[in-house]
Every structure is written in structure tokens, then in C-alpha cells.
């Protein structure tokens, strides 16, 4: 084996760097600029550390690093592979962008307790990268719980009655399912197989009954309810009480993606795609996911609150990803891995725009946004690009991943899934494009926005522009992320 | 050779410091405190020493009192299990002693030296129960610790007297049952030494003997009363929640855990796994009882509006964890139970200390006392959070790993109702603690439902209270991280033959 | 019928202890007056003490003191059937001490209860708590 071109503890350092920033952030709470500097420093170092491993991983290698032997025969360990890299890269890159946005948003809104906010943001990021690099199910579970708990104070940041309700729902769903379903599923798996390592062949020996496999599969799929599969989805709209940057990063990228990431890890690493296909378990997954895709898209149509509509759109898109994986074909899984990154860039753009609109105008509801495109053209154009990416239209990255998943469906010979993709794309278009249309094309009389409104501060409109641009770039050059996904599937 | 005498020093250090406190500390509370700490440090260091000897040496340490050879004399037997429990008990007692300085001065203004004397007596009684290798000696020490705990609990507030009185009655029934059971064993075997008893009881005739069975039932019933196992748990919440802060910090973590230890010791060192799981075959029934205990404890905790009462019911549920784990009758369940003794001492200690600090600062005992805690008392709040996470079972705190083993054991034996009870209790605990976190995190709302964000001044408990609290909170994470070490160096050695 | 009688008579000491235990338990559980509960507790403990003492009894045996036991050079084996078992007596000395201490603590607490609540009737105390 070749010498690795980075120190072996790099994945651990990548996790720890944002934790290390926490005390610095606390200590400089009196000096906001210094405080924010630490966030950026940690974000930059984290991104560099992760990038330093990228070449090695793209070449088809993996890297394992044992953190701690915690139980006899079971250790906390990190493993960097293509899928983990893909997710870590997306999350850490978007953390930096979101931090810019956070500063603009939080300062403009004169939010209280900003130090606490940035601290928990950093902790949440550590947990996210931890999930991405988790080398076995126990490690994954540890970071998964850490993420649930650290994001609680972000979700309830406003500390008002609404936040309490949202936070309550958030923890009830996330902790309830992870303790009640995922933990026993993990223990039963450990009991049957004696191993919690991820392996592309799956860990289950021959002769485990189908009923047991189905039970475990359902417990895992619903246990990691950050993935938002119905009926365990309603925490996500509830958590929209959070400040917009939190919704943007955590609920379009980190938290929900950690959910689908975990579910995909279970599919590919614990069950193994071959087992899923052989035992016909993938049909169950596809049915659950398809149901969620269609229903959530329909609900999204009825939402007037922009953030809630985005939340339901997210639920649908997450189910997309799981549906792609549920096809249990290589193309489908590759597509669904890729969709994690594509959707992340598209959805975060949309959230940023929603926040920018709120900062500039104080408007939350779609019906109040008629004509806003004329006052905030940059923001709304970014919004347009973002929605194209979610719908899956060129020239955005979302199309590439959707195309792969559709091809996966054909490969897997599941024609009805094609129909689901088609219908849901129409629904996506139906709930996004009217917003854009009404924002730009309306008469002076219809416009609800008189002259005085302007673009939000630069910190608020620049990040969506960046992410929208990345979304478009990804259409032309999906190579990096596609490479990671392909490495994962071929290795 | 002083090293050979260390086992007895574990007991004697607190006992002598108690005597010294009564004689010399009548005038000065500082002298009393100093002597108390001295005794606890002595006991703790002796326990450390002995534990190290056990870990390094081969086999258990036998210490003959007065050099009378067993089975005629009393002996102390320190093996991995008792060494570990001695370490935890003396450690927790030391931490509580340091913690007690401020609260005792406020809550028990007069005759502090009496209070501290009782404290030392209780601790030496508990340590003696753990160390002894003689069933009658165990009874005497049980009563020593029980008597001193009665007196300590009675020096509480509110309904402390009436609650204590009930505890005296119930506790005496428990101890007397135990004594009666020992009588049966003595009639059949003519010995009181545990090791001797276990060889005598190992024969098939003894296994079939109804007298032995009745003896076992009386003994185990007595111990269950002491450990507040369902349905005999009624006395505990009243007695413990009315007690003064230091008393509940000392008694709540230790009494029940030592009782569980006694149950394990008697089940496997006097009787045998063979007898209990093959001849008696109660395990199904017992695991169901444990499930009910867990559920009842958790649900009752949910109904409480008083912080300490809530914790008391959690203690009741935790007893169910350990009893269930032991009666799962396999090595994973047993390891989980032993590991849980260790972690639960620290969990409950941490929580009671944190709550005690809040009560000390606010004077309130209801859940509302936690309002604004994160800003007002950040360190206490952090310790409380860690303790809460451990009770819920969030990795990497030790509570997660004890559940890990207990659930694994339950899955292995196919007792899924125990799995469900454990998970149920985790979820209820999550609700319990997040309810408190909500109270702490959200200030009162104005009429529009907005947070008021009033400025709260930091008003942290004194360092003497914080240090032990932080140590116990940190130990939860340390125990969790070193699970593998503890499992392979201590817990693994305690698994009895036949599991 | 004869069998039952022999059964009872042969172990009459156990039956006596059992009856005393039951009386004690009854007192502790059923009595409303707290002092009576304490009396019940005392009976209960004494019953166990009697139980222990009775099991050390052997017919035609003497007190366990070996005359001129000291200074005898040849340690001839002593026939245990000639002496009652001394160990239960010794144990019960300790148990008596424990019992007395428990009684003392219980009475002290009872006194305190009387001072605080003005009564030692349980139902009256419960009522006063409710108010």
C-alpha cells in the first residue's frame, strides 16, 4: 500500500477543528469580529484538511483511523471513503458560505446570544463531519446523537413559545426514533452478526430470516428520522422556527443529509445492495420513499409560508435520495449519493434567498411576495437557479443526479419509479416556478412592493449567488462529486 | 506490614474519624469537617490501594479479623466486584463529604459534629457490607448503616420525620427478613461464612431442600426492601426527597447500589448461578418484575413536580435495570448490571449534587427552580446535563454503555420485554430531562409568546460544591470512554461461574 | 390428623416464632397508632431472636462452658452433643443490641413526630399533611 499523502489522524483533526474553535469563540464573545474570525479559521482549516484527503480517495483508496477502543471488540473509528468525502466536502464548504450569511443575518436582525449560536454551529459541524467519516455504526450513532442535541439550541434560538414548541417536536422525533428504533436495531444487528463495520457486501450472514431483515430495515430507515421519511417527517417543518441560516445549513444540508447519509450507509454498508436486491427488500424502501415523495410535494403546494414550503420540498427530495438508493442498482445509488450534494447546493440557495427576503422586507409568506423580483433581482434570480436545480432542469447540477437516478430505475427495471420521478418533478415545478413567476412578472398595480425596498445587505445576497453559481458549475463539471460516488460504488 | 492491613483500614478510617469527631469537634465545625475529610480520604486511598492489589494480584484478598481462620472468624473478602464497589462507595462518600461543607452549615446549623459522626458511621457500615465475607456480619453492618441513615434522613425538612419513621418500619422488616433467612441457612449448614456456605450449598440435596429455598426467599425479600425494588419501593421517594441535600447526595446513590451489590453477592457467592437459574428458575418472572419496576419508576418520575422526588423515582427505575440485568442469567446482562452499579453511583451522585446546588442557591425544590439555570449557574447546568444524558443513555456517557450491555443481554435471551422497558425508560428520561432543560433554557414568555431575554446575573454555587460535582460529571464520560478497560479488567472477572 | 399434630408439635418452637412474627407484622402494618407500630416492630425482632435461640437447643445438653478447659494438655475431642450450640446466642447478643438501637431511633423519631404534628395517630397526621 502506498504511503498516504497526509497524516493518518487527518479525519479526526477535521472533526475536532471546529470543536477546538468553541472555547476560542466563547472567549472572544465580547469582540464579535474576532469571534467570527475563529469560525472562518476553523471552517477554512476544516475544508483544507478534508481537501487534503480528496486526491487519495479519488484514486480509489480508503483511509481508516481508529479513534478509541471503547468496547471489547468494538472501537470508535473513522473511515474516509468516497461517499463520506462527498458529504464532508459539501458540508464543510457550505459551512463557510453559511457563516458569511449568518453574520449578515444575525447582525442585521440584532439577534441575541450570537456567541452561543456560533458555538453550537461549530459543534454541529463537528458532529456532521463525524457522521460523514464514521467508520462503523456505533461511531455513526454517537455523532448522530451529538448532532441532534447540539442543534437543539440552534433550532430554539429565539427562545420564545413557538421555538419551544418546535424544539420539543424536533427532539421528540429525533431522539424518540433514534433511541426507540435505531439503537435496538443496531444492537440486534450486532447480536446477529457480531460486527457493526460497514462493508459493501453487507454484514448479515446467510440464513437470517427475511422477516428479521425487513424488521431491521424498517427500524433503521425510520430510526434515522433525520431523513424525514413519512410518517416521521413533521419535525422538519416544525424546526423552521429556527433563524434562517440554521434552517439553511442544518435543515437543508447538515441535519437532514446526515439522516439520508446514515440511511444510505445502512443500505450500502450494513445490508449491502446485493442483499437488498436479492431479498427484494428494495421494493419496500421504494414504496415508502415514493409515498413520501408524492405526498410531501402535494403538501408543499399548499404551504404559503415560504420556509415551510421549502421544508416540505426538502422532505420530498430526501425521499428522492432514498428512493434512488432503494433501486439497489449501481447507477441509482450513485445518483442518490450525488443528489446529496446537488440538492444541498440548490436547497441552501433557496433558504438563503428566503432569509434575504425576510431580512430586506420582513415578509415570510409567498402570497406577500408578488413583484419582489423587481426590488431584489439578484436574490430572486438565485432563487430561480436554486429551484431549477431542485426540479432537475438544466443548467443545474440537480439534473445530473436526477438523470442518474432515472437511469438507475431503468436499470433496475422498475418502471413505476420512473413515473414517481416524473410526477414529482412536475410537482416540484408547480410549487417553485409560480413564486418566481409572480416575483418578476406582474403589473405595477399588482406588485406589493413600492419603491423603497432594496436588496438585503451584501452578506445576505452574496452567499446565495455563490451557491447558485456552484449549482450551475456542477452541471458542467460534476466530476469531483461524481468521482467520489463512483469510487464508492466501484470500490 | 501496613499493606496487609489496608483492607480493614477502609472501614476503620471513617469509623475512627467518627469517634474523633464526637470527641474533639463539639465546638468547631471546621474541625469536624477536617476530620470527616481525613477519614474519607483515608478510606478512599485504602480502597484505591486494595483495588490496585486486586487488579495486579492473582485472586481475591482475604483478610481475617483478629486472625481467626474462617469459617470460625469473620473475614473480609475483596475480589474484583467488591474492590470496585468499595472504590466507588468510598469515592462517592469523599466527594459528598467535600460537597457537604456549605449545605450542611445552612441546613443543619446545630450539632454538626453529630451529623458528621452519623455520616462516617453510615459510610463505614456501607463499606463493611461490601467487604465482609460473613452473612451475619453483613446483617450487623446492614443495621449499622440503616440506623445511621435513619438518623441522617430524619434531620431533613418538611415531612422528614414521618417519612423516616415509615422507612424505619419497612427497613426493619427488610433487615429482619434477611436475618430470618440467614437463620434457615444456618440451621441447614451450621456456618455463616459465605465461602463455606457456598460449598455446603452446592450439593443436590441442598438444592432440593425447601428450607434453603425459604431461606433464600427471605434473604432476597429483605434485600429487595432495602433496595426499593418494585413493589417494595414505596418508602424510598418520601424518605430521600425530604432529606437534607447532603444526606440525599450520600444515601440515594449508595444505599440502593450497595443493596444491589449485596443481592449479587448473595446470589452468586453464597448460592450459585446453578441453584438460582437452574433449580429455582425464577428468571422469567424476575425480569418481568424488573420491567414493571422500570416502567413504574419512570412513569412516576414523570408525574413529579419536585426535583428531588423526580430523581428518587429515577433511582427506583434504575434499580430495575440492575435487578433485571442480573436475572437475565447471561454474562452480558450480568456485566451490564455490574457496570451499571458503577455508573449509576456516579450518575445519581452527579444529579443529586447538581440539584442540591440549585436548591442551595434558590431555596426552591420544584422544577421551576431550574429557571435560567444555563445563564445563572452554567457549571452546575453543565454537570446536570451530563448526568441527564447519562441517565437517558446518550453516548459516550457511561449510561449508554450499561444500556448497551443490558439490551444485548436481553436480546441474547430473547427477553424483548426487557429491551422495550429499557428503551421506554430512556425515552421517558429524555422527556424528563428535556422538560427541565426547557425550563432552564426558556425564560418566561410575555403575552405574545416571546422570550423576554432578561439579563440574568451569574450566581454560581461555591467551589467546594462545584468541584465534586464536576468530578462526578467528568467521571461519567471517563467511565464511558474507558468501558473496554473496565470491562476487561474488572467486570469480566466478576462474572460468576455458570453464566 | 395425628400427622398434622405431630408435625406441629415437633416444630413447636418454629410455630411460636412464626406466630410472634405474624403478630409483629400485623402491628407494624395494620395499627394506626405509630407507637403500636414500634411495639409491633419490637415483637417482630424478638420473635427472630427467639427463633435463633431455639435452634441452638439440644435435649439433654448443658451450657457450652467446658469445665477446666484451660491448661489441659490433651485436647481430647469434645462431644458437641453435650453442649447447646453457643453461636446463635452470641449472634443474638448482637441482634439484641441492634434491636435496642432501632427501638431507640424509632422512639426518638416518634417523639419528634409528636412535637411537630401533635399526634401519633397515622390518619390524623396524614390529614394534617393534606391541609
Describe the structure.
Chain A has helices at 10-27, 32-58, 82-109, 114-133, 137-155, 161-193, 210-223, 235-238, 244-271, 273-278, 281-302, 306-326, 330-361, 372-375, 377-391, 397-411, 415-440, 458-476, 479-490; strands at residues 63-71, 74-80. Chain A has 491 residues and is mainly alpha-helical. Chain A has two domains: 1-169 and 230-263, no CATH class; 280-491, no CATH class. In chain A, helix 13 runs antiparallel to helix 19 (479-490) and helix 15 (377-391) runs parallel beside helix 18. Chain A is globular and about 70 Å long. Chain B has 499 residues and is mainly α. Chain B has a domain at 286-499. A two-stranded antiparallel ribbon of chain B has the order 1-2. The longest helix of chain B has 32 residues, at 331-362. Chain C has one domain: Helix Hairpins, CATH 1.10.287. Chain C has five helices and no strands. Chain C has helices at 2-10, 12-30, 34-55, 87-117, 122-130. The termini of chain C are far apart. In chain C, 23% of the residues are buried.
SSE topology:
The complex is a heterotrimer of chains A (491), B (499) and C (131).
Chain A: H1 10-27, H2 32-58, E1 63-71, E2 74-80, H3 82-109, H4 114-133, H5 137-155, H6 161-193, H7 210-223, H8 235-238, H9 244-271, H10 273-278, H11 281-302, H12 306-326, H13 330-361, H14 372-375, H15 377-391, H16 397-411, H17 415-440, H18 458-476, H19 479-490
Antiparallel strand pairs in A: 1-2
Helix pairs in contact in A: 1-2, 1-4, 2-3, 3-4, 3-9, 3-13, 3-18, 3-19, 4-5, 4-9, 5-6, 5-9, 6-7, 9-12, 9-13, 11-12, 11-17, 12-13, 12-17, 13-15, 13-16, 13-18, 13-19, 15-17, 15-18, 16-17, 16-18
Chain B: H1 6-24, H2 29-56, E1 61-64, E2 75-78, H3 80-107, H4 112-131, H5 135-154, H6 160-189, H7 194-200, H8 204-208, H9 210-227, H10 235-242, H11 245-270, H12 273-280, H13 283-302, H14 307-327, H15 331-362, H16 373-376, H17 378-392, H18 398-413, H19 416-441, H20 463-481, H21 483-494
Helix pairs in contact in B: 1-2, 1-4, 2-3, 2-4, 3-4, 3-11, 3-15, 3-20, 4-5, 4-11, 5-6, 6-9, 6-10, 9-11, 10-14, 11-14, 11-15, 13-14, 13-19, 14-15, 14-19, 15-17, 15-18, 15-20, 17-19, 17-20, 18-19, 18-20
Chain C: H1 2-10, H2 12-30, H3 34-55, H4 87-117, H5 122-130
Helix pairs in contact in C: 2-3, 3-4
Amino acid at each position: 500500500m502506498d504511503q498516504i499523502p497526509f497524516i493518518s489522524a487527518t479525519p479526526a483533526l477535521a472533526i475536532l477543528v471546529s470543536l477546538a474553535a468553541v472555547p476560542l469563540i466563547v472567549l472572544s464573545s465580547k469582540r464579535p469580529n474576532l469571534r467570527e474570525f475563529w469560525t472562518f479559521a476553523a471552517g477554512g482549516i476544516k475544508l483544507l484538511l478534508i481537501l487534503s484527503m480528496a486526491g487519495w480517495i479519488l484514486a480509489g483508496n480508503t483511509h481508516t483511523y481508529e479513534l478509541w477502543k471503547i468496547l471489547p471488540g468494538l472501537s470508535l473509528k473513522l473511515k474516509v471513503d468516497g461517499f463520506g468525502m462527498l458529504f464532508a466536502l459539501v458540508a464543510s464548504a457550505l459551512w463557510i458560505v453559511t457563516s458569511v450569511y449568518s453574520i449578515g443575518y444575525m447582525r442585521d436582525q440584532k439577534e441575541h446570544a450570537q456567541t452561543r449560536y456560533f458555538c453550537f454551529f461549530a459543534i454541529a459541524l463537528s458532529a456532521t463531519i463525524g457522521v460523514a467519516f464514521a467508520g462503523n455504526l456505533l461511531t455513526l450513532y454517537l455523532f448522530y446523537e451529538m448532532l441532534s442535541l447540539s442543534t437543539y439550541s440552534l433550532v430554539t434560538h429565539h427562545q420564545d413559545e413557538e421555538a419551544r414548541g418546535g424544539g420539543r417536536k424536533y427532539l421528540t422525533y429525533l431522539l424518540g426514533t433514534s433511541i426507540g428504533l435505531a439503537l435496538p436495531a443496531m444492537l440486534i444487528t450486532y447480536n446477529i452478526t457480531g460486527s457493526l463495520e460497514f462493508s459493501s457486501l453487507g454484514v448479515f450472514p446467510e440464513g437470517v430470516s427475511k422477516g428479521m431483515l425487513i424488521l431491521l430495515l424498517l427500524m433503521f430507515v425510520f430510526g434515522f428520522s433525520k431523513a424525514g421519511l413519512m410518517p416521521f417527517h413533521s419535525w422538519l417543518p416544525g424546526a423552521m422556527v429556527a433563524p434562517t441560516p440554521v434552517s439553511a445549513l442544518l435543515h437543508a444540508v447538515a441535519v437532514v443529509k446526515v439522516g439520508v447519509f446514515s440511511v444510505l450507509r445502512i443500505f450500502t454498508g450494513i445490508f449491502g445492495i446485493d442483499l437488498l436486491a436479492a431479498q427484494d427488500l428494495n421494493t419496500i424502501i421504494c414504496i415508502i420513499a415514493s409515498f413520501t415523495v408524492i405526498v410531501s410535494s402535494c403538501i408543499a403546494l399548499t404551504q404559503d409560508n415560504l420556509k415551510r414550503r421549502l421544508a416540505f420540498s426538502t422532505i420530498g427530495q430526501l425521499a428522492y435520495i432514498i428512493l434512488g438508493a432503494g433501486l439497489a442498482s449501481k447507477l441509482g445509488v450513485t445518483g442518490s449519493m450525488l443528489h446529496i450534494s446537488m440538492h444541498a447546493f440548490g436547497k441552501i440557495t433557496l433558504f438563503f434567498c428566503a432569509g434575504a427576503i425576510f431580512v430586506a422586507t420582513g415578509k415570510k409568506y409567498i402570497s406577500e411576495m408578488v413583484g419582489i423580483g423587481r426590488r431584489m433581482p439578484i436574490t430572486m434570480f438565485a432563487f430561480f437557479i436554486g429551484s431549477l436545480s431542485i426540479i432537475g432542469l438544466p443548467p443545474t447540477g440537480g439534473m445530473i443526479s436526477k438523470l442518474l437516478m432515472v437511469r438507475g430505475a431503468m436499470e433496475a427495471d422498475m418502471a413505476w419509479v420512473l413515473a414517481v420521478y416524473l410526477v414529482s418533478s412536475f410537482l416540484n415545478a408547480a410549487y417553485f416556478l409560480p413564486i418566481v413567476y409572480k416575483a418578476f412578472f406582474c403589473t405595477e398595480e399588482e406588485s406589493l412592493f413600492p419603491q423603497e425596498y432594496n436588496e438585503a445587505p451584501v452578506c445576505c445576497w452574496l452567499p446565495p449567488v455563490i451557491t447558485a453559481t456552484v449549482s450551475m458549475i456542477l452541471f458542467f463539471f460534476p466530476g469531483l462529486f461524481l468521482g467520489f460516488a463512483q469510487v464508492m460504488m466501484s470500490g | 506490614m501496613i499493606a496487609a492491613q489496608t483492607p480493614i483500614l477502609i472501614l476503620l478510617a471513617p469509623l475512627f474519624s467518627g469517634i474523633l469527631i464526637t470527641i474533639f469537634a463539639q465546638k468547631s465545625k471546621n474541625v469536624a469537617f477536617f476530620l470527616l475529610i481525613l477519614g474519607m480520604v483515608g478510606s478512599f486511598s485504602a480502597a484505591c490501594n486494595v483495588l490496585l492489589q486486586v487488579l495486579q494480584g492473582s485472586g481475591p484478598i482475604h483478610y481475617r479479623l483478629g486472625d481467626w481462620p474462617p469459617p470460625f472468624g469473620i473475614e473480609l473478602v475483596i475480589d474484583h466486584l467488591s474492590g470496585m464497589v468499595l472504590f466507588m462507595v468510598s469515592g462517592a462518600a469523599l466527594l459528598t463529604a467535600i460537597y457537604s461543607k456549605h449545605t450542611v452549615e445552612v441546613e443543619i446549623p446545630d450539632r454538626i459534629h453529630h451529623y458528621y459522626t452519623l455520616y462516617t458511621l453510615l459510610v463505614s457500615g456501607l463499606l463493611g457490607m461490601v467487604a465482609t465475607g460473613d452473612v451475619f456480619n453483613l446483617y450487623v453492618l446492614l443495621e449499622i448503616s440503616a440506623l445511621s441513615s435513619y438518623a441522617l434522613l430524619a434531620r431533613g425538612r418538611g415531612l422528614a420525620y414521618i417519612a423516616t419513621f415509615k422507612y424505619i418500619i419497612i427497613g426493619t422488616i427488610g433487615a429482619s427478613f434477611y436475618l430470618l433467612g440467614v437463620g434457615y441457612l444456618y440451621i441447614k449448614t451450621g456456618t455463616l461464612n459465605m465461602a463455606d456456605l457456598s460449598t455446603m450449598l452446592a450439593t443436590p440435596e441442598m438444592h432440593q431442600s425447601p428450607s434453603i429455598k425459604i431461606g433464600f426467599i427471605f434473604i432476597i425479600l429483605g434485600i429487595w426492601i432495602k433496595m426499593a425494588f418494585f413493589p417494595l419501593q414505596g418508602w424510598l421517594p418520601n424518605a430521600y426527597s425530604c432529606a437534607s441535600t447532603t444526606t440525599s447526595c450520600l444515601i440515594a446513590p449508595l444505599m440502593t447500589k450497595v443493596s444491589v451489590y449485596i443481592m449479587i453477592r448473595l446470589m452468586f457467592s453464597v448460592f450459585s448461578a446453578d441453584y438460582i437459574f437452574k433449580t429455582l428458575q425464577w428468571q422469567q418472572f424476575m425480569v418481568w418484575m424488573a420491567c414493571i419496576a422500570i416502567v413504574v419508576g419512570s412513569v412516576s418520575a414523570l408525574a413529579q413536580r419536585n426535583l428531588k422526588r423526580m430523581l428518587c423515582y429515577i433511582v427506583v427505575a434504575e434499580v430495575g435495570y440492575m435487578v433485571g440485568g442480573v436475572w437475565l442469567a447471561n454474562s452480558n446482562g450480568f456485566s451490564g448490571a455490574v457496570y451499571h452499579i458503577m455508573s449509576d453511583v456516579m450518575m445519581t451522585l452527579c444529579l443529586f449534587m447538581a440539584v442540591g446546588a440549585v436548591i442551595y442557591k434558590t431555596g426552591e425544590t420544584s422544577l421551576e427552580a431550574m429557571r435560567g439555570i444555563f445563564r445563572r449557574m452554567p457549571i452546575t447546568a453543565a454537570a446536570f446535563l451530563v448526568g441527564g444524558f447519562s441517565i437517558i443513555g446518550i453516548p459516550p456517557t457511561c449510561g449508554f454503555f450499561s444500556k448497551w450491555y443490558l439490551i444485548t443481554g436481553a436480546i441474547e435471551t430473547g427477553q424483548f420485554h426487557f429491551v422495550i422497558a429499557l428503551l421506554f425508560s430512556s425515552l421517558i428520561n429524555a422527556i424528563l430531562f428535556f422538560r427541565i432543560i426547557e425550563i432552564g433554557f426558556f425564560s418566561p414568555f410575555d403575552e405574545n409568546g416571546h422570550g423576554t431575554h432578561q439579563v440574568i446575573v451569574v450566581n454560581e454555587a461555591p467551589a467546594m460544591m462545584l468541584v465534586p460535582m464536576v468530578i462526578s460529571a467528568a467521571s461519567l464520560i471517563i467511565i464511558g470512554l474507558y468501558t473496554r478497560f473496565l470491562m476487561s479488567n474488572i467486570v469480566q472477572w466478576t462474572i460468576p461461574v455458570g453464566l | 390428623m395425628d400427622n398434622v399434630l405431630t408435625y406441629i408439635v415437633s416444630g413447636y418452637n418454629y410455630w411460636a416464632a412464626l406466630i410472634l412474627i405474624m403478630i409483629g407484622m400485623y402491628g407494624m402494618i395494620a395499627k394506626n397508632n405509630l407507637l403500636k407500630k414500634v411495639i409491633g416492630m419490637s415483637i417482630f425482632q424478638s420473635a427472630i431472636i427467639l427463633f435463633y435461640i431455639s435452634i441452638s437447643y439440644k435435649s439433654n445438653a448443658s451450657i457450652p462452658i467446658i469445665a477446666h478447659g484451660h491448661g489441659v494438655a490433651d485436647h481430647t475431642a469434645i462431644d458437641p452433643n453435650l453442649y447447646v450450640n453457643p453461636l446463635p446466642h452470641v449472634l443474638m447478643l448482637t441482634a439484641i443490641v441492634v434491636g435496642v438501637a432501632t427501638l431507640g431511633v424509632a422512639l426518638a423519631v416518634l417523639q419528634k413526630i409528636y412535637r411537630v404534628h401533635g399526634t401519633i395517630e397515622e390518619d390524623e397526621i396524614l390529614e394534617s399533611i393534606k391541609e
